[in-house]
Design goal:
With 332 residues, this protein is of the alpha/beta class. Helices cover 38% and strands 14% of the residues. It has a single domain, classed as NADP-dependent oxidoreductase domain (TIM Barrel), CATH 3.20.20.100. The protein is globular, with a radius of gyration of 19 Å. The relative contact order is 0.16. It binds NADP nicotinamide-adenine-dinucleotide phosphate.
């Protein structure tokens, strides 16, 4: 496993990291959660990403139990705040009161005194950006988080935060980024790298689609993520015969290069130096090992050109799937 510096921080994160959305908050049984997490340590993964809202606390609780058996300085722990935590519509967002309450709740569930990275899961356009920035700064001053990040912020929102907090306030940006979702390259990558902010990218395998296991016109494989009823809404957004056919055109390219499809997809996001880590999910320990193998794999210019040609018009480059991120910025 190779490691990359996270923005202007002193953290060295593994190129492949493990996330706990869906999989460790109900989707995957406790034994598999433990097996995948331990497989990550075995594979040299030192970076773990969760959020208060995953399973409304359940994912943090599961990792609190598993990770606390490891020395605290042997892993880099990231969590997030913003998502809806209860049926109370006010129990969400980035107000100073909500951030102050949620960091304490996350630390309790994670069984630790601090997280390495505390991220805004989304932007909250109902709260003045100055108030949000001050609330995050306070979390760091109190020693409850070492560094700060954000997820799915627009260039306008990122610039507003940098203008207030300075270039070193945030060290990471967490956008969706994969062979099928290339939109952040256009503006977010450059703006962030000019301000000491790395990308840590989510769903780099497009939720498993880029492994090639879903075939156009064929039933969804049993036991896979898109076989689950709870994923019906997400499936409608990302799963079509056109996309699955394009992914199948990548299979011979990966084979000819002597690499697996997960390796091709993960090495593709890691080809960009702006990306510090690819945050993968896994429902089985074998997947963790297979994904970790992508670290350090270089893709030739010829291979990259063949991939572009095979995908054709399929990659989404406009942020149409992230409507929440389109709201503006409120000031005091
Ligand atoms: N900031 C945000 O808004 C946001 C949003 C989403 C996710 N995230 C973060 O990103 C993390 C990763 O997201 P993701 O789980 O969607 O990532 P992903 O790596 O694109 O997809 C992971 C899923 O693909 C399948 N898979 C993984 N490796 C495989 C392999 N080698 N062979 C076959 N199938 C494989 C598994 O599902 P099955 O085995 O069940 O098919 C696995 O759960 C999350 O846990 C979370 O930490 C953040």
């Amino acid at each position: 496993m190779r490691y990359r510096k996270l923005g202007s921080s002193d953290l060295e994160v593994s190129e492949i990291s493990l996330g706990s959305w869906l999989t460790y908050s109900g989707g995957v049984e406790a034994d598999a959660t433990r097996a995948c997490t331990e497989a990550a340590f075995d594979a040299g993964i030192n970076f773990f990403d969760t959020a208060n809202v995953y399973g409304r606390g359940a994912a943090e609780t599961a990792w609190g139990e598993i990770l606390s058996a490891h020395p605290r300085d042997s892993y880099i722990l990231a969590t997030k705040v913003c998502g809806q935590m209860s049926d109370d519509p006010a129990d969400r967002g980035l107000s100073p009161a909500h951030i102050a309450q949620q960091i304490d709740a996350s630390l309790t569930r994670l069984r630790t005194d601090y997280v390495d990275l505390y991220q805004a899961h989304r932007f909250d356009p109902s709260v003045p950006i100055e108030d949000t920035v001050e609330a995050f700064q306070k979390v760091v001053e109190q020693g409850k988080a070492r560094y700060l990040g954000f997820s799915e912020w627009t260039p306008e929102q990122i610039q507003a935060a940098v203008d207030i907090g300075g270039p070193d306030l945030f060290v990471s940006s967490q956008p969706q980024y994969s062979l099928l979702w290339q939109a952040p390259e256009a503006e977010v990558f450059g703006l962030c790298s000019g301000n000491g902010i790395s990308q840590i990218v989510w769903s780099p395998l497009a939720q498993g689609i880029l492994t090639g296991k879903y075939k156009p016109g064929q039933p969804v494989p049993e036991g896979s993520r898109f076989a689950s009823d709870t994923m019906a809404a997400a499936k409608d957004l990302v799963y079509s015969d056109e996309i699955l056919a394009a992914v199948q055109r990548l299979v011979p390219i990966a084979e000819q290069a002597g690499m697996s499809m997960p390796t091709l997809a993960l090495a593709w996001v890691l080809r960009r130096s702006e990306v510090a880590s690819a945050i993968t999910g896994a429902s089985r320990p074998e997947q963790v090992h297979s994904n970790a193998a992508a670290s350090g794999v270089e893709l030739s210019a010829d291979l990259l050109a063949a991939v572009d040609q095979a995908l054709g018009d399929v990659p989404v480059t406009e942020p149409t799937l992230a409507p929440m991120a389109q709201a503006g910025v409120k000031h005091r």
